[in-house]
Prior knowledge:
The chain is α/β, with parallel strands linked by helices. It has 6 helices and 7 strands; from the N terminus they run βαβαβαβαβαββα. Its EC number is 2.1.2.2.
Amino acid sequence: MNNIAIFASGNGSNFQSIVDAYKNKKLKLDKIILITNKKNCYAIQRAYENNIKNYTFVLKDYNSKEEYELDIVRTLVKEDIKWIFLAGYMMMITDVLLKKYDKKIINIHPSLLPSFKGKDAIKEALDNKVYLSGLTIHYVNHEMDAGEIIFQKQVRVYKTDNVEKLTKRIQKQEHKYYWQIIDKIIKGG
Ligand code: GRF
């Protein structure tokens, strides 16, 4: 069964683009579920509007990160989830999930890794006056934004750019490519 979980913490525009591709039958899946770690994030609203089952797990409701991830794993197993795609999930993945989903957790990041890891990737690209940035889709491992790279797409940075403008152009490419790479990964096994 090609069942996938998208993990998100915020706006969920990447989640939306994957759902759109699924609904348009461009991305052939048996099921998508959404996992969030923020009770009121907009991704949840998108899930409701698109009839996608969603679950929220809040770290502070647990005694440890291990228990938090164990609870997520229980849900993923119950839902028969085979792949996890992070899309703006603002938390490190730890051993519990990594062991259960070995080589089955993928992330999208708004820079050309290994440049500009972390949550301020777009601002750092601008601060460093690079003329090329972009996006990276990569496997997730113990280190932040450091797993094996699957796909990269360059995006030109202009002198007139600010965080908002560059974010918009990078995200446009994320929405175009993430579901296509998901499709390839799933078909490859
Ligand atoms: C994306 O730009 C992604 O690269 C990064 O977080 C952002 C999430 O945006 N990891 P959204 O929630 O999908 O709109």
